[in-house]
Amino acid sequence: MRILVTGTGRCGTTWAWKVLRDSGLDVSHQAIRHEHVLGRASLDEALDASQHHVSFEAAPLVPSIDHDEWRVVTLLRRMGPVAESWVRIGGFPCTDEFSEMRDSITANVSSPLDITSPDADPLTAAKLFWFRWNGMILPNSDAVCGMPGTTPSDLLAACGFLGRAAPAAPPCDLNHDPGDERAYA
Predict the structure, then answer these.
(1) Following DSSP, what letter does each residue of 30-61 receive, concatenated?
(2) Domain 2-171 CATH class label
(3) Beta bridge partners of 147
């Protein structure tokens, strides 16, 4: 069985990838990108690269994933901190880089709330996006890890690797900026 660890951006996927990697698993990080999800690049290429994957951008694939082949583990972080982090790093209002990803996710979840309006308050739009994103992936998850608070052993158990030695990793630091390795070096 292959593992896909996903969640919203800013929920601990970098930490999860490092924990799984340091546990000796063949795991990629962000190999599944929005180019694959939107069909502009070969998803098979990304999926064949490693046995297991950690990618927040894989979220739109979750509703159609084959659960006989894949175990989906979702990292769930509270809405407020995720939305605030997205706004702080410039993700809302949505940059061009993520606008197609946002549109792909919002197309999968029906809601009368419009987060694409140029008049939308960035924090409110980010919170609505969190709601839509998790509304799409949580019903299709095999396990959920609350972030922060999940230990390396908890993550390995959620992935189905009971009894596997967990690395001596610090707790997940969810307040780092992209590229800042404080989360777990």
Answers:
(1) S-S-HHHHTTSS-HHHHHHS-SEEE-GGGGGG
(2) alpha beta
(3) 77
**pTM for this structure?**
0.81
Q: Is 111 left (phi over 0), alpha (psi -120 to 50) or beta?
A: beta
The CA distance from 57 to 33, in Å, is 5
The answer to whether residue 142 scores a pLDDT higher than 80 is yes
Is residue 90 within 8 A of residue 21, CB to CB? The reply is no
**Using one digit for the tens of pLDDT, what is the confidence trace for 23-54?**
999 998 887 766 666 666 655 666 666 788 88
Domain ranges of the chain: 2-171
Q: Which helix (H) or strand (E) holds 130?
A: helix 122-137
Cβ atoms 5, 159 nearer than 8 A: yes
**Phi and psi (nearest 5°) for 71?**
-110, 120
Residues 6 or more apart from 69 whose CB is under 8 A from it?
A: 1, 2
Q: Is 153 helix (H, G, I), strand (E, B) or coil?
A: helix
